[in-house]
Amino acid sequence: MFSTDKQMGYQCFVSFFDLRDPSQIDNNEPYMKIPCNDSKITSAVWGPLGECIIAGHESGELNQYSAKSGEVLVNVKEHSRQINDIQLSRDMTMFVTASKDNTAKLFDSTTLEHQKTFRTERPVNSAALSPNYDHVVLGGGQEAMDVTTTSTRIGKFEARFFHLAFEEEFGRVKGHFGPINSVAFHPDGKSYSSGGEDGYVRIHYFDPQYFEFEFEA
Question: What are phi and psi of 153, to 5 degrees?
């Protein structure tokens, strides 16, 4: 599954390929294409059991599409600006979104019900859920076009850690000299990676204090 951009008169589509059918790959003919007439898709992931996809749009909307019929199963709009990233929890029951509206939000994967909100002062480009703890990491910063006009301190280029249940920030990690474009936890939860506008990918290993930390509400 992948989506195309909406530009130069071309419409945005979500295309589905069955990898068990080589002819679809050879002929570049997906078994289904879903047109997106209103707002282009900016991020998409497979939903639980591969029965649907969850797509975030430029408008801030979230849609759940059937992987069999292409029908819109659920539609919600909890963000006021573009959704930049969607990442699932390990068990795929929840997912977190990152948006240009300066927030990341937690949703139920089946109902798309909004659960939690994590607020910052700058656009959020990426967010990821820890596989082991009730933690979420956010990456972002000032818009790329404005990076050269500010210092790293003002740009707020740190990765920021929030408690999943209490929605409170409890830590920051510096290192990048521009906005963070992507973050991801290692599957074992002992480290995370971040990719930035500065061209670097950084792998951060948590120190022992991280695993001993207990959040006090």
Answer: -70, -45
